[in-house]
């Protein structure tokens, strides 16, 4: 039995599957990841990407923050890939109970998934830092001033993306939901993540189910603890694994 067949068998045998994913899930939708050779952290900017995506930088250098953000973090034309659609199919089949994602692109929802726990927020949601009014991504883009800074149409204050920046804590409610789902899963599929960013990477420790599967092009610190490790493109792997369910 090859790796895909093994994964397919475990999916068939499982009733509470949880998927935990990172940037590698969206690279096949032409959204760059962070740490690969073509990733966001390798791009040349006046400051490191981690600095430009920090809360302090957002507050002190909003012009430079939004220049970086809109040029490097927003991909309006991105569409779901095979991985997103395979997971949506698993949910519709009643087997996948939750997607826990580090991604902020909203592609899981575009593919039809309903129970998506976004650990780091979403670029599709934005809010005024004073009055709290919410804006869509399209509205936020249209409300940029001459410096490229989006401002609220009610009070003129800066509109902040509803994403977790460096120095900011995760939404505790989302985090607790993710822990709850992972702790109840009988099959945990982890894909497209290097498993080096905490606290997100630490969520795997809550898994008590039968099988842990890792799908990632590169080696991760958790490979030795997994029941199955697949170093292949995640879209093709999941597409094949959910066929004939």
From TrEMBL:
Its main location: cytoplasm. Keywords: Cytoplasm, NAD, Transferase. Pfam families: SIR2. It comes from the Bacteria. Residues 1-245 form the Deacetylase sirtuin-type domain. Transmembrane segments: none annotated. It catalyses: N(6)-acetyl-L-lysyl-[protein] + NAD(+) + H2O = 2''-O-acetyl-ADP-D-ribose + nicotinamide + L-lysyl-[protein]. It is an enzyme of class 2 (transferase). GO terms for cellular component: cytoplasm. Its EC number is 2.3.1.286. It is found in: Cytoplasm. Belongs to the sirtuin family. Class U subfamily. NCBIfam families: PRK00481.1-1, PRK00481.1-3. This is NAD-dependent protein deacetylase. The gene is cobB.
């Amino acid at each position: 039995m090859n790796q895909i067949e093994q994964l397919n068998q475990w999916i068939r045998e499982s009733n509470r599957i949880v998927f935990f994913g990172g940037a590698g899930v969206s690279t096949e939708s032409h959204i760059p990841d962070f740490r690969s050779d073509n990733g966001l952290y390798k791009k040349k900017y006046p400051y490191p990407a981690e600095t430009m995506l920090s809360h302090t930088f957002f507050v002190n250098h909003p012009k430079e923050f939004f220049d970086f953000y809109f040029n490097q973090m927003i991909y309006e034309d991105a569409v779901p890939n095979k991985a997103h659609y395979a997971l949506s199919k698993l949910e519709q089949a009643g087997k996948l109970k939750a997607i826990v994602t580090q991604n902020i692109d909203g592609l899981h929802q575009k593919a039809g998934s309903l129970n998506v726990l976004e650990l780091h927020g979403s670029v599709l949601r934005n809010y005024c830092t004073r009055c709290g009014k919410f804006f869509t991504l399209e509205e936020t883009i249209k409300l940029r001033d001459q410096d490229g800074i989006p401002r609220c149409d009610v009070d003129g204050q800066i509109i902040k993306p509803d994403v977790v920046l460096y120095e900011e804590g995760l939404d505790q409610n989302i985090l607790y939901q993710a822990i709850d789902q992972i702790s109840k899963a009988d099959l945990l599929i982890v894909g497209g993540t290097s498993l080096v960013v905490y606290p997100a990477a630490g969520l795997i420790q809550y898994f008590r189910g039968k099988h842990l599967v890792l799908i990632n092009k590169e080696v991760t610190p958790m490979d030795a603890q997994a029941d199955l490790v697949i170093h292949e493109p995640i879209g093709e792997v999941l597409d094949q694994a959910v066929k004939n369910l």
